[in-house]
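Course assignment 3, question 2. Fill in each field.
Student: A.L.
Task: Predict the tertiary structure for the chain below.
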Amino acid sequence: MSGAMKLDRPPVCGKMHIVRAKVLFFLLVLILSAPRALAGPGVEITCPEKVHQGQGFFVRIASTEPVGNLKLAWLGKALRPAVFKTGSGYEAVALLGAGLDVGAGVAVLSVEAKVDGEKKALRRQVAISAKEYPEQRITVPKDMVELTDKALSRHYAEKETVQKVLSRVFRAQYLKQPFQRPVPGKVSGIFGTRRFYNDQPRSPHKGVDFKAHAGQRVHCFSGGRVVLIGEHYFAGKSVYVDHGQGVVSMYCHLSKVLVKKGREVEKGEVVGLAGMTGRATGPHLHFGLSVLGQAVDPLPFLQ
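Answer field:
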């Protein structure tokens, strides 16, 4: 609200008018400062007002009344999270994110639902800020940077396959907290790093690298279904697990894959063994997390 509210000055003898004015002003302040919520009794949505590029975040919808046909829309993608009965009412939780390629500005989160049989809607603005990530310079064999036409065609075909997997949104909802750290090793490569291979700029690092010795067991971040097994030019032997609602975790540079496509896996289950396949200078695990096709930093969810 721009500008201060001006109340008419009451007569000196009208003390009751002064009291009423103060009460009305107090009530107005309460109304304007109350949490923004879906229209209707006891229904509200909770999400951050500000996020930065590369950040994932949770959205929570809570209601004292039954909620049906719940739909969330964010950055051009839609999902329908499941609603669960709780001790105090009904609740749904969804993981969203703003990728590194999302421009700074204001994005709109749209929520639609039927509450007690009546359709409700909310549009929540979320500010997305730019974030500066560090640089990293890596020396690798020349053929890993200057690709032949054959290698380049292979890479583009593999990239298209991966993008199709990351763009799907399944209704199933396996994701549950707390999440499993895939390996116990320290971080050796942080998310968002602007990488230069042999001094040539390449895409930012869209995952986290963990130190791991060759043959070390790699554990699944959360329950889900294996949707892709790959042996890619850059990522090497890889496993992609879909956790439902547009959330996919990735485990790359493996020396061996221990699961099959289509299989359901539990949190903590071993999906492969760490290695250095693909473009890697030593054994480690590249762990990535995609949310509705947006690569986000998985590390905050593991600490």
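Instructor remarks: The first strand starts at residue 43 and ends at 46. The helical segments are 15-33, 149-167.
Grade: pending
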